[in-house]
Amino acid sequence: MSYIIAFSNEKGGVAKTTTTYALGAALAELGSQVLLLDLDPQANLTLANGLEPGKSAHTSAEILLDGSALQDSIQTTQTTNLQLVASSSRMVDAEHFLPVRMNYQFILRDALKSPEAQKFDYILMDCPPSMGAITTNALTAANLLVIPTQAEYFSAYALRDMMTIIRRIRKDSNPDLAYRILITLLDERNRAHRAIREQLQQTFGAGLFTAVIEIDTRLRESPIVGIPISQYRPNSRGSQQYRILAQELVDYVRQQ
Amino acid sequence: MSYIIAFSNEKGGVAKTTTTYALGAALAELGSQVLLLDLDPQANLTLANGLEPGKSAHTSAEILLDGSALQDSIQTTQTTNLQLVASSSRMVDAEHFLPVRMNYQFILRDALKSPEAQKFDYILMDCPPSMGAITTNALTAANLLVIPTQAEYFSAYALRDMMTIIRRIRKDSNPDLAYRILITLLDERNRAHRAIREQLQQTFGAGLFTAVIEIDTRLRESPIVGIPISQYRPNSRGSQQYRILAQELVDYVRQQ
Ligand SMILES: Nc1ncnc2c1ncn2[C@@H]1O[C@H](COP(=O)(O)OP(=O)(O)OP(=O)(O)O)[C@@H](O)[C@H]1O
Ligand SMILES: Nc1ncnc2c1ncn2[C@@H]1O[C@H](COP(=O)(O)OP(=O)(O)OP(=O)(O)O)[C@@H](O)[C@H]1O
Ligand SMILES: [Mg+2]
Ligand SMILES: [Mg+2]
Questions:
Q1: CA neighbours within 13 Å on the CB side: how many for B141?
Q2: pLDDT in tens, B158-213
Q3: Which residues of chain A have pLDDT under 70?
Q4: pLDDT of residue B1
């Protein structure tokens, strides 16, 4: 049984893509078989793997829109134990056309039940910064929703909407959806960051990962090279902090 | 004739909301009559004005979904010469339901032709980080598209999609749509930032504002207090740099 995680937040620019990639690579380094699923029309996860969005014949758009088999879209990456389903700008059509179909929210969940998907220990899905049909599909398929968030006012406020969305998904299509909040892009020297981080810990308690990801410019650079941070700068703060997160996640999953 | 500006970028977290608010306040300070239009379901521009999203009876959702008059949704802010149309989470419905209507992309353009709208020198629209029906409405109504962007790899790549979208809008609904790119959240000390900024200047030339907005933690703090940066910390770097941008914009509009 593969464990399925969605990385989603309506707030933009909170490191959803960066976290999906860096955590995926850290889990692969631990020896797990990991599949990355790029569900964002921006295709940043595809780009971060050194691939040109739009060049792959089969992408997540074909799975969602045409019902094509998962295995047709899986490709290898430059990282051992890490595979990818690319995205393309056609995913914009998924956002527009899926909602008219009956039970459209179960398309991805059902595609991830295939034998091919069961070969993976973890399936990590990067979502766009919107709460439409694509994100609904991801949250319906997921065991866990990871919500990357900055320790900033707009981001903290977005968590209120995210809690509302979790309640809706649990009612409509996925009663067992769990969540964990991850603080990213943290600047420990910044007073506002420290204050909001404190508030988040008080409000969410165990709903927050203990692991925190601080600002590390190496994380901006690795997508340019097309490899994950753990290969680009294995001893960087970013690599280390995502390894700690990977260990905390493995412990969490084991307890479930 | 009011001059209409859309702040849009598919890439999330690039300071669309921060720029709409800070630039709007700087133009109001110069004596212009300015209307801020919050078109994002996240309602961050509404929140930054110290208002509770969802509490306003009439919002941009009523204009787009119900065809209600612009003047019903306009409210004053704590800043002289600056008024606001709030947003609410109902705007998510606009994203889903508008595309089935004939000529849905002209709803906002037509609403901004009302006599009430003509009282304003500038109308500034904050868009969500997605390229759906709401953003199409804004780009159809706008004289100018301002694209805030970080000097980072994913953001720079998003500009390619934005150019494609501009071509589509010019063909379909707004042949005179102009654009200007604004570099935001710049860290002058960061090598990757300097390198990408250089590349953007070479690629886009005059398509780029000369003014640049650097990282200034005061810009993160002002939304918490519910007033614009020019009132919260008038002598901060953020306030000064948005005043320079306002002057460059005024000069640009005068030449049109
Ligand atoms: N810890 C970090 N330190 C420094 N830069 C970071 C870090 N995490 C992410 N970034 C950079 O911040 C920007 C935003 O991150 P990213 O694009 O992953 O966010 P996102 O939530 O996926 O955005 P979107 O909402 O557009 O999908 C990117 O340019 C990324 O390279
Ligand atoms: N120049 C700046 N210096 C420091 N922080 C900034 C600056 N500009 C914006 N910010 C902060 O960066 C974060 C992202 O900015 P903002 O929310 O305005 O971006 P956005 O493009 O509107 O995001 P979204 O895609 O979610 O709508 C916010 O927390 C904001 O307070
Ligand atoms: Mg992303
Ligand atoms: Mg915004």
A1: 34
A2: 999 999 999 999 999 999 999 999 999 999 999 999 999 999 999 999 999 999 99
A3: none
A4: 84
Instruction: Among A9, A10, A49, pick the best mutation site for testing chain B contact (most B Cβ within 10 A).
Output: A10
CA distance B22 to chain A (A): 15
Closest Cβ–Cβ partner in A89, A131, A154 for B44: A154
Does the distance separating the beta carbons of B99 and A42 come in below 8 Å? no
Longest dimension (CA), chain A: 50
Cα A165 from chain centre: 16
Q: How confident is the model at residue B86 (pLDDT cuts 50, 70, 90)?
A: very high
3-state SS record for chain B: CCEEEEECCCCCCCCHHHHHHHHHHHHHHCCCCEEEEECCCCCHHHHHCCCCCCCCCCCHHHHHHHCCCHHHHEEECCCCCEEEECCCCCHHHHHHHHHHCCCHHHHHHHHCCCHHHHCCCEEEEECCCCCCHHHHHHHHHCCEEEEEEECCHHHHHHHHHHHHHHHHHHHHCCCCCEEEEEEECECCCCHHHHHHHHHHHHHHHHHECCCCCECCCHHHHHHHHCCCHHHHCCCCHHHHHHHHHHHHHHHHHHHC
User: What percent of chain B has pLDDT above 90?
Assistant: 96
Q: Which atom of ligand 1 is nearest to the CA of B155?
A: 29
Q: In this predicted structure, what is the pLDDT of residue A96?
A: 87
pLDDT of residue B54: 86
Nearest CB neighbour to B221, from listed A92, A95, A192: A192
Mean pLDDT of B11-16: 98
Give the minimum alpha-carbon distance from B154 to chain A in angstroms, rounded to a whole number. Answer: 6
Considering only CA atoms, which of A147, A129, A132 is closest in space to residue A200? A147
**Encoding tokens for residue A19?**
């976290």
